[in-house]
Recover the amino acids of this structure.
């Protein structure tokens, strides 16, 4: 088996969890999971658990989280004069937030289950992958957001190449993803809450920066992400960690409240085109 990033053959199996085999490349440090069935694309809506559905539905924390992302984008570009594409838009609520603020935003979602449930009635959404979109666009996007999506991707190389293809020459890509190199991830090991069957690609900042440079993209800035969560969501998540089939009878009472969490195990990266593709190897032994 080859590493999806550096193509090296020196792969170490780490552990098996949630019907997925987790591995690490000994050369570049990239961690990834192999699954027999890609639940991200093949699940029906009924297959998703209560915690994930709450994440997709409108909740009390959305306004604060979306405002924070909008401010981050505004540090690099006038988003009110740009065309925005949200890749892996899920239930589409970030796109709706942007459009409510008079921003020209649209979204794509590869999961048919999510598209049919949340997006099919609105013309500014498409049920497609970014790879298929990159073969048909005529005008590129100035702003592309990829929020909590990269970790769900099985083939990050083709994914990033497609993002670059649909990005305007003076455009920016804003990515948020779990940080496998964080202290929290290293301390919790296999018990890290981001290790599960839906997450297939895990980057550290170092590996992510190198990988982007290889594809002709440059990390202009990093963002230490602070995220607001409904208290009920946190309760449900903790219950699920303790018992995968467990349910909390009191969580609903706390859905109207939210709290900020800055755990240090997610990073944001703003990318721009470098104009060239690096032809060099990565060594992290």
């Amino acid at each position: 088996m080859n590493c999806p990033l550096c193509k090296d053959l020196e792969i170490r199996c780490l552990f098996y969890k949630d019907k997925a085999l987790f591995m690490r490349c000994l050369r570049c440090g990239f961690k990834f999971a192999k699954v027999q069935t890609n639940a991200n694309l093949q699940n029906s809506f009924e297959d998703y658990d209560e915690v994930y559905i709450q994440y997709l539905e409108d909740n009390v924390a959305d306004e604060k989280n979306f405002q924070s992302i909008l401010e981050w984008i505004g540090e690099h570009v006038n988003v009110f004069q740009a065309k925005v594409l949200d890749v892996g838009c899920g239930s589409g609520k970030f796109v709706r937030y942007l459009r409510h603020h008079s921003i020209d935003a649209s979204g794509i979602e590869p999961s048919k289950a999510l598209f049919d449930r949340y997006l099919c009635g609105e013309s500014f959404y498409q049920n497609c992958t970014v790879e298929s979109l990159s073969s048909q666009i005529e005008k590129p996007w100035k702003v592309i957001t990829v929020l909590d999506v990269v970790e769900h991707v099985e083939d990050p190389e083709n994914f990033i190449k497609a993002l670059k293809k649909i990005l305007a020459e003076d455009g920016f890509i804003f990515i948020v993803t779990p940080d496998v190199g964080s202290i929290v991830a290293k301390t919790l090991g296999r018990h890290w809450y981001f290790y599960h069957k839906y997450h297939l690609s895990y980057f550290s900042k170092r590996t992510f920066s190198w990988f982007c440079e290889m594809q002709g993209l440059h990390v202009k800035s990093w963002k230490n992400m602070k995220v607001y969560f409904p208290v009920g969501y946190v309760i449900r998540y903790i219950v699920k960690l303790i018992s995968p089939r467990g349910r909390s009878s009191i969580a609903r009472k706390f859905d109207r409240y939210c709290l900020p969490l800055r755990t240090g195990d997610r990073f944001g990266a703003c990318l721009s085109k470098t104009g060239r593709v690096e032809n060099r190897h990565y060594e992290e032994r």
The radius of gyration is 18 Å. The CA atoms of residues 63 and 205 lie 27 Å apart. The longest helix spans residues 62-74. The chain is about 30% helix and 25% strand.
